[in-house]
Amino acid sequence: MTRPADHPAPTLRPLYRAEQVRELDRRTIARGIEGFALMQRAAAAAWQDLRSRWPHARALSVLCGGGNNGGDGHVLAALAAAEGLAVQRVLLKPVEALTGDARRAADMATAAGVSAEPWRADVRLEGDVVVDALLGTGLGGEVRGEAREAIEAVNESGLPVLAIDIPSGLHADTGATLGAAIRATRTVTFIADKLGLYTGAAPAHVGELVFCALGVDAEAEGDLAPAARRLEAGLIAAWLPTRPRDAHKGDHGHALVLGGAPGFGGAALLAAEACARLGAGKVSLATAPEHVTASLVRRPEVMVHGVRGAGDLDALPERADVLVVGPGLGQGSWGQGMLQAALAASRPLVVDADGLNLLASRFRGRQRDDWILTPHPGEAARLLGCSAGEVEADRPGAALALQRRYGGVVVLKGAGTLVAGPAGLAVCPHGNPGMASGGMGDALSGILGALLAQGLELEAAARLGVLVHALAADRAAREGGERGLLAGDLASCARILVNPTVSDGKGEDDAAATR
Question: Which residues does AMP bind (predicted)?
Fold first, then answer.
């Protein structure tokens, strides 16, 4: 079992929904900070970031919408002009039609000598950098008309883009694109960090992300509970402390992987290998008999059992501390029997792949507090009885709905993987496109099984497992590139990550010995 952590767990950055951020804005103004002053702070922060990121830029194209996001753009245009840059200001809404702080900002830019031109389909973007201040976080419906034309023109320009607060067209709560969205090089977001900047389509649109609180302390507002938390690398050292010198394999649990129907042995072996590499004391694999020899050749440390059906399992599930069921399981009679045996055992479960498909089709209505479900969007759709498109349109909502329906902890895989459990929602900001290859989910299920075997509580294991899986993929990509990254590459990288004294470059002498 895991002993108390040597290091306190880091405070995970809170993430909020758009309406919560608007409420924070309203409260800040009510306490005496003028709305226009906040707008000026935001524009100044964005301007300083632009100068730092593109110090040689001599001309900007600033695209302004009709709301306060556009107001930020007007003020930034004035600041840039004051420092001698050539500024092209393109407007979706004429200055005379603007009201409130947005009008004050537009007048400020005009007074600074920045000319304005209306958006037209033939507008040529003249800046070295484009500033996206079109739509902001209030967008709810699909982008249409001139706004869509402007977004598509920016994306086709090939110019670097700084998005103010959020890339226009991206949903601030879900990370879905609403018809069209800016593909930013860099995004500077304000007041409070937004959930929709981290999941779904967001990683392809946000670029480098910078957060500026503008002097607002969101967490001081006790009644505004964060919509999610962002997983941080510091969790690894906090939740996986150095092992004591007298540790032995019995201290670190026994995980059993059930999978590998005839013809699908690789998936289960990937899970078993990841489980062993992440530190489970003992790992067993129950797989179809024809896969036994290959499994032993590949990973002799795993105790491999050839089983023709659930009747061959005997007491194996009860001898394990945690069961991982699903990798290469298949949906035939062999897989159904394995899942039924796993569900009957009084052990924590990790359910993946065809284990999830069988839950959706043949074992409906099951709910447990001691399992981790790890669906990708297609599997999530089958579990919820909807389409994969509906899942992707609101990934946070889908993850929470799955957790309410099935209990335990749900890991909704994909860009910006989400973990939904009793403590709420967490999102992983790590990972890369190289993970879009076969077997990655199998490796994750093995990692989760190993962490549960070592005594981590269910939700902690899910959060930490998702984090380690993504960071291991990032490490592997740095070493060999994203294209061609294989699931089998992750286990050795993950092993380094969960041994901080090794990953910090301190060598193996300080690592705890095991026997």
Answer: 413-417, 441
Q: Give the per-residue pLDDT at 178.
A: 96
**CA–CA distance, 309 with 335 (Å, rounded to integer):** 8
> Binding site: which residues?
68-72, 132, 136-142, 165, 168, 267, 328, 376, 413-417, 441-442
Whole-number percent of the chain with pLDDT over 70: 96
Helices marked H in 299-394: 316-319, 333-344, 354-361, 377-384, 388-393
**CA-CA-CA-CA torsion sign (171, 376, 239, 368):** positive
Task: Pick out the residues of the known binding site for K(+).
Answer: 69, 132, 168
Identify the three-state secondary structure at position 414. coil
Torsion of CA 504, 198, 447, 368, to 10 degrees: 140
Rounded CA gap, 152 and 169, in Å?
11
pLDDT in tens, 352-361: 999 999 999 9
For the chain, helix, strand, coil in percent to 5 are: 45, 15, 40
Contact predicate 361/387, CB 8 Å: no
Task: List, as residue ranges, the binding site for AMP.
Answer: 413-417, 441
User: CA torsion, points 372, 376, 382, 383, in degrees to nearest 10?
Assistant: 20
| pLDDT at 505 exceeding the cut of 60 | no
Distance between CA 55 and CA 50 in Å, rounded? Answer: 8
Position 243 confidence tier, pLDDT thresholds 50, 70, 90 = confident
Q: Are 21 and 191 in contact (CB under 8 A)?
A: yes
Q: Residues 6 or more apart from 465 whose CB is under 8 A from it?
A: 411, 444, 447, 448, 451
Rg of the Cα atoms in the chain: 26
Residue length of the chain? 515
Annotated binding site for (6S)-NADPHX: 68-72, 136-142, 165, 267, 328, 376, 442
Residue position matching structure tokens 């910006």: 416
**The residue type at 190:** F
Burial of 340 (0-12, 13-18, 19+ CB in 10 A): middle
Its pTM stands at: 0.94
Locus of tokens 């593909």? 183
Q: Does 325 have pLDDT greater than 90?
A: yes
- Determine contact, residues 328/266, Cβ cutoff 8 Å: yes
